[in-house]
Amino acid sequence: xxxxxxxxxxxxxxxxxxxxxxxxxxxxxxxxxxxxxxxxxxxxxxxxxxxxxxxxxxxxxxxxxxxxxxxxxxxxxxxxxxxxxxxxxxxxxxxxxxxxxxxxxxxxxxxxxxxxxxxxxxxxxxxxxxxxxxxxxxxxxxxxxxxxxxxxxxxxxxxxxxxxxxxxxxxxxxxxxxxxxxxxxxxxxxxxxxxxxxxxxxxxxxxxxxxxxxxxxxxxxxxxxxxxxxxxxxxxxxxxxxxxxxxxxxxxxxxx
Length: 256
Known about the structure:
Helices cover 46% and strands 15% of the residues. The chain is an alpha/beta fold. Helix 2 (43-55) links the parallel strand 2 and strand 3 (59-64). It is globular and about 45 Å long. The model has no long low-confidence stretch (mean pLDDT 93).
């Protein structure tokens, strides 16, 4: 049985909303009464998510947004505020990976692309979300980092470094803005059944799924629903004293 949350009339912005955690989060926040601003680099896919929500009576706008592009992020947040009048919750979920290689086999283009989305993208989203939240005197930001941000990740060094950076941004902003009634937290999922993970498994010939499961204390991958339920909990008003937290959602991986 899922916990029932109430986000009635709260405005929730979600990046990377066309699939995976972002898509299901959009559905669950809409079911809880939120008004949604959904962004993704895939314009058609994110519009389809918004259309499904509107077809069931929810409120959602969709917009193409490359989070590594300052102008697009600024325009996305501005459109959200123009449409709904405010921004209560920002969920910075957009992320990408890179080829599984040793660090010396990766190049500058891999760095620029991966951290342009995973770290710079979170910075840009936070910059414009916080600008609005400071003006209105309240807000919640939830950054989707990764278990790779809590430990080293062989063959995913650039991804790991970016996610470590997201945690640094989260903690620093929590200290800066807590007194302004703005909470900033992060969640750190391990491998879950998302398109990002599935594509990575396909790229490696599908041989590493069993290894991923065997390496987790719970001997399985995470479910997308499990991660999204934690998003709802982290952002709800009842959880109003959690600030600067970095929450592992990893089956105990970070405890080992």
